[in-house]
Amino acid sequence: MNLYAVVVDASYPYQAGTGKYITTLKVIDQNCCTKGDEVSNKFRHALVIVYAKRLEDCPIVRKVGDILRVHRANTREHKGTRQFHVNAMA
4-49, pLDDT tens digit by residue? Predict the structure, then answer.
């Protein structure tokens, strides 16, 4: 599955206790995200979680609005939010 999405929020990569780096990106896309209810008028989002061995392998988002392409990701749903887990350790 290929995902082309707009980044609306991102965390700087951090090192987990297992020695790997994790980056979390909040994205919106017309296929996986829909407009919220009429009261809040917010967009629902998806999360892209990237796992890497080195900091250099993690995506660094320069600004909100960057376009992200994700492929070869495992898709899950957690508490009503779609998640794309990307293993960049290979």
Answer: 999 999 999 999 988 899 999 999 987 766 665 555 555 578 999 9
pTM for this predicted structure: 0.84
* Chain centroid, CA 41 distance in Å: 22
Q: Which domains does the chain have, with CATH numbers?
A: 3-87 (2.40.50.140)
* Sequence-separated (6 or more) residues with CB below 8 Å from residue 51: 20, 21, 22, 85, 86, 87, 88, 89
Query: What is the pairing mode between strands 81-87 and 46-52?
Result: parallel
Distance between CA 76 and CA 33 in Å, rounded?
A: 14
Q: Which of 83, 63, 69 is nearest to 3 (CA)?
A: 69
